[in-house]
Design goal:
The complex is a heterodimer of chains A (about 110) and B (about 120). With about 110 residues, chain A is mainly β. Chain A contains no helices and eleven strands. In chain A, strands 2, 4, 5, 6, 9, 10 and 11 form a seven-stranded mixed β-sheet that branches. In chain A, strands 1-3-8-7 form a four-stranded antiparallel β-sheet, with no helix packed on it. In chain B, strand 5 and strand 6 form a beta hairpin. Classes of the chains: A mainly beta (about 110), B mainly beta (about 120).
Chain lengths: ~110, ~120
């Protein structure tokens, strides 16, 4: 199975901060990488698909980049509603595998 | 408006089986694949497998291959996840999620079903 290594696992941040989360795949997954946002007690929501396509409902302060094995999720300026846990997912081959998550904390 | 509504929480003893349902509405049920994903407390999300609601084709993670069965009832627009030989390590929230090939796995999600395995 493809291993997804996400870092950091948690990040102490503040409103207005620029945040970068990275996800590394154990093998080349092209651009088959999605990012999800999960808030406590809720199901995840797909935030970015195919490494860089921002999904509707999310503001442009979120962006994704990367291909191959290294990927990045960037939040340009944190808003209060962005405090959540973020997961990467590879859907390049089976089994689909998630990163361990990055929890953004105030 | 798309909705995925899951069945309620379950408590099972080790060695038992559990069957969780996911009822879809607001779209053509047979046109989409449904994934199942689980999340143990404080752990990462874990993909269990998918079922194509139209063809009934399934794909399971090898991790669960021997004890998972996914089925669907088109008349009820419902998919089911059955997991057998439960252990405490199966204690988790189980989510169903619709696959959208134009977007990603999980453009819509169920609310989650807590399965607790305890003696």
């Amino acid at each position: 199975a493809i291993q997804m290594t996400q870092s950091p696992s948690s990040l102490s941040t503040s409103v207005g901060d620029r945040v970068t989360i990275t996800c590394r795949a154990s093998q080349d997954i092209r651009k088959a990488l999605d990012w999800y946002q999960q808030k406590p007690g809720k199901a995840p929501k797909v935030l970015i698909s195919a490494a860089s396509t921002l999904q509707s409902g999310f503001p442009s302060r979120f962006s994704g980049s990367g291909s191959g094995t290294d990927f990045t999720l960037t939040i340009s300026s944190l808003h209060p509603e962005d405090f959540a846990t973020y997961y990467c997912l590879q859907d390049f081959n089976y089994p689909y595998t998630f990163g361990q998550g990055t929890k953004l904390e105030i | 408006q798309v909705h995925l509504v899951q069945s309620g929480a379950e408590v099972k003893k080790p060695g038992a089986s559990v069957k969780v349902s996911c009822r879809a509405s607001g779209y053509t049920f047979t046109s989409y694949t449904i994934h199942w994903v689980r999340q143990a407390a404080g752990q990462r999300l874990e993909w269990v497998g998918w079922i194509n609601a139209g063809s009934d084709k399934v794909k399971y993670s090898e991790e669960f291959q021997d004890r998972v069965v996914m089925t669907r009832d088109t008349s009820a627009s419902t998919v089911y996840l059955e997991l057998s030989s439960l252990t405490s390590e199966d204690t988790a929230i189980y989510f169903c999620a619709r696959d959208n090939p134009l977007i990603a796995m999980g453009d819509y999600w169920g609310q989650g079903t807590l399965v607790t395995v305890s003696s």
